[in-house]
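for the recovery benchmark. C-alpha cells below, seq after
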C-alpha cells in the first residue's frame, strides 16, 4: 500500500475519522480505499482480548490466555534476556489472536508504595525501568507485533488520575520520570506510545506539544504514533496539533467532527491531520504485511515458561538458615494464598487465565499439610482458623505462611491508603511464629508492605505477583530446585511515613506537587542515611558472591569519552547460582544537590561454585550528568566521581574513582546582588575580585581587638555572604557606583 497516495484520495471526514477508534479496541477502516481495521489489546503480561463487550477495567471476561508475571516481579529479575523471552511469547500469542498492538509495557516510576498500579510498573529507578522495557519491547516486536509503552508521562498515582496535574520541575522530569521512555524509544522504537490521563504542569498530556512533539519526536526520534489512554482526551483539536494521533476509544464521531470543523475554519492545518493518519496507517501496515494468524499458541508451554520466569524474579529477602527446605521433612503450608494464590492485579491488565497452579498443587507428593489460616473474602482469621494453623505449625519442622495483599487492596483506579497487610494475616503470622521457630513467610503483593513480625520469622520470600504458575516457581525456590536470584527493583521502607513523597503524595485537589524532586526511592533513603527494611537491589541466594578487582580504562576522561569498567564476580559458596552485578555512579562534590549514588549499569551472571567471571560495563556522558535547567541539556561538572560495584545500593563491595572533565562550561553572570562566595568559586572571577576581597576581610576582621566578639570566622562569613552592592556602602566612599560598574563588566567578561 502506498500510504501517501491513499491519504491523498481520502475525504477530510475520512481522515478525521481515522484519528479515533472504531469502537473500544479497533482502529477504523476505509473500505473503499482498502484500508483495514486492526485490533489492539490490553497487556502487558498477557492478553486481555475482548471481541465484543468492551471495558477498560477488566470487568467483562476476555479470552482464555496465559498470565505471565507482572512487572513488579519481572523487574526484580534484572534479566534483559529473560524479559525478552517473555515478550516473544506474548508477541506470538498476539499473532495467533490477530492483534496488531499489545498495550504495554507500563514504565511509570514507583514514586510511592501507595500507587494502585505499582504492580504494573517496573521500578523506582529510571535506568532499570528503561532497560527492562526496551528488552520487553524488542521481544514482542520481534514477532512483528507492536507495543504501546505507557503512560507518558508522570502518571504516578490513581487518585484523581484523569484530572490531576503532576507538577514537577524539568530536572525532576528529565532525570526520573522521562528516562525509561527515552531509553525504550532509542533502544527499541515501540510502534506506539500511550499518553497518560494526567496534566503535566497544568497541561493535559494528550494535548501537550512539548511532551508529544518536542521531547518525544524531535529529541528522542520516536517514529510511531501516539494514542491516548482510554478517555484521556480533553480538547481533541489541541491534541491533534500537539501530536496525539489516535484517540481511544471511539468518540462516536463527536471529536472527528470537531477536527473537520477546525480544519475548515482555518484553526488546524490539514497537513497535521494527514501526518497523524500517515503515522497510524504506517504502523497498521507493519502488522498487516506480516500478519501470521496461523502462528501456534501453545498455552501449556507458556504456562511452564511463566513458571520459569517467575522463579527468576522472586526475591529472597531474609534467610536465617531455614531455607531451602528438605523434601523429606514435614512442612505446614498455612494461608489461603497457598491454595488460591494472588498472582495478578486488578484492572485493565487482568487476565482470564486458562489454568493456574498453586503452591499446594505444586507440592503434591511431598509431606506437606495445609490449613487455610485466614479468609480473603471475609478478611478475617477466626480463633478456630488460628488454632488450626498453630497446631499444624507445631506438628511440622517448618511452617510456611502464604500472605499478601488481596485484590481489593491494590488495583487500577484507586490508590492504597496504607502499607499494611490485612490485620488478620499479621495476627496469623505472629501466632505461627510463636508456635514454630522455623517460620517462613511467602508474600504475594504488587508493592512494598510493612512487616511488623520481621524479627520473629526466619525467612521471607517475596513472590510478588508471579503469574498463573506462581505455585510451581514458589515450591521450586522453597525446596532449592532453583536458587533464588531476584533483587528488589524498589526500596522497602520500614514504614510508609519514611517515603519521600509521604507529605505530598496524592496532592491537594487537582495539584500533585513532586516536591521531593529527584530524590525518589533509594536516592532519598541513601542520601538521608535512613534505615530501610530492605534496600534497592537487595536479594539473597543459597550461595554467596563477591565482587573484586575493579578496573577502569582510565583515571581521567572528558564527558565526550566513554569509560570501560571491569569487575570480577565470583561464586564463593557451594551451590551454582545467579547474581546481579550492580554498578552505581556518584558525584563526590557537586554544586547542585545530587544523590549519593545512581544505578548506571547491571548484569545478571550465572556462576558455578568457585567460578569467577569478568563483567564489563561501558559508561558515557549520561552516566555522570545531571539535567541543567539553564542549558536545557545534560551537563557534567568537572570533578571526581565514584564507581561502585555492589549487591544492593547499601552493599557496595568495591569502588574506584575517576575524574571527569566537563567540556561545556557554564557561563556565569554577575550583578550587584551577587555575593562574594559565589564569585570566589569561579577562579577567573576570584582573581579579579581578590584585592577588593582582601580589603573587605580586613574591615570585618578582629582588627585591633576593640570588638573581640568579631572572630575570624564571623568576619569571613560576613564577607562571603555579602553582595557586591555593599562595597559602596561599607567602603567610606573609596568605591563608588562607577567603580562597581567597571568591576562587574570585568567579571562578566572573565
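predicted aa per position
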Amino acid at each position: 500500500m502506498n500510504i501517501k497516495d491513499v491519504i491523498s484520495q481520502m475525504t477530510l471526514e475520512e481522515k478525521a475519522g481515522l484519528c479515533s477508534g472504531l469502537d473500544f479496541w479497533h482502529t477504523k477502516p476505509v473500505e473503499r480505499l482498502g484500508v483495514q481495521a486492526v485490533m489492539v489489546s490490553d497487556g502487558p503480561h498477557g492478553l486481555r482480548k475482548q471481541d465484543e463487550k468492551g471495558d477498560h477495567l477488566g470487568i467483562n471476561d476476555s479470552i482464555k490466555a496465559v498470565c505471565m508475571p507482572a512487572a513488579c516481579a519481572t523487574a526484580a529479575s534484572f534479566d534483559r534476556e529473560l524479559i525478552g523471552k517473555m515478550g516473544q511469547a506474548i508477541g506470538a500469542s498476539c499473532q495467533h489472536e490477530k492483534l496488531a498492538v499489545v498495550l504495554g509495557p507500563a514504565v511509570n516510576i514507583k514514586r510511592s508504595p501507595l500507587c494502585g498500579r505499582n504492580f504494573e510498573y517496573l521500578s523506582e529507578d529510571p535506568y532499570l525501568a528503561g532497560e527492562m522495557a526496551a528488552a520487553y519491547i524488542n521481544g514482542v516486536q520481534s514477532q512483528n507485533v507492536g507495543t504501546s509503552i505507557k503512560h507518558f508521562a508522570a502518571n504516578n498515582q490513581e487518585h484523581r488520575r484523569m484530572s490531576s496535574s503532576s507538577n514537577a520541575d524539568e530536572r525532576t522530569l528529565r532525570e526520573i520520570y522521562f528516562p525509561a521512555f527515552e531509553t525504550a524509544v532509542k533502544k527499541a522504537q515501540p510502534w506506539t506510545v500511550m499518553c497518560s490521563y494526567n496534566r503535566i504542569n497544568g497541561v493535559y498530556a494528550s494535548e501537550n506539544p512539548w511532551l508529544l512533539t518536542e521531547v518525544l519526536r524531535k529529541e528522542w526520534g520516536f517514529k510511531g504514533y501516539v494514542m491516548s489512554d482510554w478517555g484521556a482526551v480533553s480538547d481533541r483539536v489541541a491534541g491533534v496539533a500537539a501530536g496525539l494521533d489516535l484517540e481511544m476509544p471511539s468518540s462516536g464521531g463527536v471529536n472527528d467532527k470537531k477536527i473537520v470543523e477546525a480544519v475548515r475554519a482555518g484553526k488546524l492545518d490539514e497537513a497535521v491531520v494527514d501526518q497523524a493518519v500517515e503515522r497510524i496507517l504506517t504502523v497498521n501496515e507493519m502488522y498487516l504485511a506480516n500478519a501470521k494468524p496461523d502462528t501456534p499458541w501453545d498455552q501449556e508451554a507458556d504456562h511452564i515458561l511463566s513458571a520459569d520466569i517467575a522463579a527468576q524474579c522472586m526475591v529472597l529477602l531474609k534467610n536465617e538458615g531455614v531455607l531451602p527446605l528438605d523434601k523429606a521433612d514435614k512442612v505446614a503450608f498455612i494461608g489461603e494464598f497457598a491454595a488460591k494464590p494472588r498472582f495478578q492485579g486488578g484492572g485493565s491488565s487482568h487476565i482470564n487465565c486458562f489454568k493456574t497452579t498453586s503452591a499446594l498443587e505444586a507440592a503434591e507428593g511431598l509431606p506437606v499439610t495445609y490449613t487455610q489460616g485466614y479468609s480473603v473474602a471475609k478478611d478475617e482469621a477466626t480463633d478456630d482458623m488460628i488454632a488450626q494453623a498453630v497446631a499444624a505449625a507445631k506438628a511440622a519442622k517448618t511452617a510456611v505462611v502464604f500472605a499478601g495483599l488481596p485484590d481489593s487492596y491494590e488495583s487500577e483506579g484507586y490508590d492504597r491508603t496504607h502499607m499494611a497487610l490485612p490485620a488478620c494475616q499479621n495476627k496469623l503470622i505472629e501466632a505461627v511464629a510463636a508456635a514454630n521457630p522455623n517460620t517462613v513467610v511467602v508474600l504475594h503483593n504488587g508493592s512494598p508492605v510493612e512487616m511488623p513480625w520481621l524479627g520473629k520469622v526466619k525467612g521471607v520470600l517475596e513472590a510478588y505477583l508471579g503469574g498463573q504458575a506462581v505455585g510451581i516457581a514458589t515450591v521450586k525456590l522453597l525446596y532449592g530446585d532453583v536458587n533464588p536470584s531476584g533483587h528488589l527493583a524498589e526500596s522497602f521502607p520500614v514504614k510508609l511515613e519514611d517515603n519521600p513523597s509521604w507529605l505530598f503524595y496524592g496532592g491537594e485537589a487537582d495539584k500533585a506537587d513532586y516536591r521531593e524532586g529527584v530524590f525518589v526511592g533509594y536516592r532519598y533513603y541513601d542520601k538521608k542515611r535512613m534505615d530501610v527494611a530492605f534496600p534497592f537491589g537487595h536479594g539473597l541466594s543459597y550461595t554467596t558472591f563477591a565482587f573484586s578487582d575493579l578496573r577502569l580504562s582510565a583515571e581521567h576522561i572528558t564527558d565526550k569519552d566513554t569509560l570501560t569498567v571491569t569487575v570480577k564476580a565470583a561464586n564463593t559458596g557451594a551451590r551454582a547460582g545467579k547474581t546481579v552485578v550492580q554498578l552505581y555512579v556518584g558525584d563526590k562534590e557537586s554544586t547542585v544537590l545530587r544523590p549519593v549514588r545512581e544505578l548506571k549499569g547491571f548484569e545478571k551472571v550465572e556462576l558455578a561454585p568457585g567460578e569467577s567471571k569478568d563483567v564489563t560495563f561501558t559508561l558515557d556522558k549520561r552516566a555522570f550528568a545531571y539535567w541543567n535547567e539553564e542549558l536545557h541539556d545534560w551537563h557534567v561538572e568537572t570533578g571526581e566521581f565514584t564507581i561502585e560495584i555492589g549487591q544492593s545500593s547499601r552493599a557496595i563491595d568495591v569502588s574506584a574513582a575517576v575524574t571527569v572533565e566537563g567540556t561545556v562550561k557554564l557561563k556565569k553572570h554577575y550583578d550587584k546582588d551577587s555575593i562574594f562566595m559565589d564569585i570566589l568559586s569561579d577562579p577567573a572571577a576570584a582573581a579579579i575580585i581578590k584585592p577588593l576581597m582582601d580589603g573587605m576581610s580586613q574591615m570585618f576582621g578582629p582588627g585591633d581587638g576593640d570588638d573581640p566578639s568579631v572572630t575570624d570566622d564571623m568576619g569571613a562569613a560576613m564577607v562571603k555572604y555579602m553582595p557586591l552592592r555593599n562595597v559602596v556602602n561599607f567602603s567610606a566612599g573609596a568605591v563608588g557606583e562607577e567603580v562597581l560598574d567597571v568591576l562587574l563588566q570585568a567579571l562578566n567578561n572573565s
